[in-house]
Amino acid sequence: MSAELFVVGLSWRTAPVAVREHLAFPEDELGHVLSDVRNAGGVAEAMLISTCNRVEVYGAAAPTEGARAVVEVERALLARRGSAPAEVRRALYEHVGAPAIDHVFRVAAALDSLVVGEAQILGQLKEAYARAHATGAAGPILSRCLERAWSAAKRVRTETAIAKGAANVSSVAVELAARVFGDLGGKQVLVIGAGKMSTLAARHLKTAGVSGLVVTNRSPERAAHLAAELGATARAWGELPELLAKADVVISSTGAREPILTTALMKKVAKARRWRPVVIVDIAVPRDADPAIGKEDGVYLFDIDDLERVVAANLAERGKAAAAAGRIVDGEVAQFHAWLRAQKVVPTIRALRDHFGQVGAAEADKVIALLHKKELAPAERDAAIRRAIDLVIAKLLHHPQMALKADETEALAHAARHLFPLEVVAPHGAHGHDDHGDHGHAEPAPADAPAAISRPAAAR
Description:
Blueprint (H helix, E strand, L loop, with lengths): L3 E8 L5 H4 L6 H12 L4 E8 L3 E8 L4 H16 L4 H6 L1 E4 L1 H11 L11 H15 L5 H20 L9 H13 L6 E5 L3 H12 L4 E5 L3 H11 L2 E3 L4 H7 L2 E4 L10 H10 L5 E5 L16 E4 L4 H11 L1 H25 L2 H28 L4 H29 L4 H9 L41
Parallel strand pairs: 5-6, 5-8, 6-7, 8-9, 9-10
Antiparallel strand pairs: 1-3, 1-4, 2-3
Helix pairs in contact: 2-3, 5-7, 5-14, 7-14, 8-9, 11-12, 15-16
């Protein structure tokens, strides 16, 4: 069960949205990508998370195979994107062993998030794990690691103030819109896309008191479902130009690979609006809006990277809480390291149990057979049982004693005193009389010594 954990990926820390969007995977592609990763050389377990702020693979490899697994996983990810620019490869990071474990725990605790303390990442991780577990890609090592990481995240949220005032991506998107208008009350809002990000944004907008909320999506059913949930109006995807012309705030989060809000479209929209202000918050990765539309008069465009400026002021306030959270995570990481180290000796412990059990069972079978075969007096029966125990002890100690005597460094002797609660007494008398542990015998009985039973002369 021993394994080496690794992480391969990129995030908002290493790549702007213009780079991240080249590696982001839509939901319907995640299963295929995970299969590619799981089948990469050296990979024993894997899970894949793809959000607006990070694309990462968490995996486990056989001992000493972590470096190879990292290379193969990178190759599998990039192969899915074909002509991904060189910036993507340069933005990738690799963690193997202890750094990988630390990274997973910090991500789960939202200490590595763009918005420190945000709650959404934990749900995204759980979904990614559930997908991997359902396909058999996640095994016991990843399962245990994530279980402990989630426990650490729970402690961080309940024992510190890191989540106080924390915002997720969608609520910060609404805050950006409010910065332009001052107050969203009475504004007309268009939500493009009916995914989780759009749903969260729509809920925050409802709370902000907007007067009208319209949802559009390529899937009419999903648009209708979200609209019913929010008390909004669902409109057809084909009406997008007209809907844009009427909206004051646009929240866009679709899974499109190419921009849907193009320069040509927004020129027409701006003109139809007579260049009245419109805020477009593009929280999609890949981006839904062509960056060039931000140059149009009256168009205020914000993308996912602009969120960093919004949350920067919050970071100083949460500094002390983040430090306390870091100490909690460090403690939980240390516990997982201890568990992982223990797994390396599990096969040895199992082999010891099996070996001891086999020796004991063999002698027990012999004495049981003897007791069933012959009528023995109580004293004879007791002697037979004691002799069987002596033989078990002799067989179990035979090889260890030989190894201890042959070890000139006495390292095995130190190990034996560490493994067992031994009270070692220095031998007395001449050299060579050092076998006091053998009950007076110079050598223990050989492993195949017969279970001889002494009987009174009258019984012979």
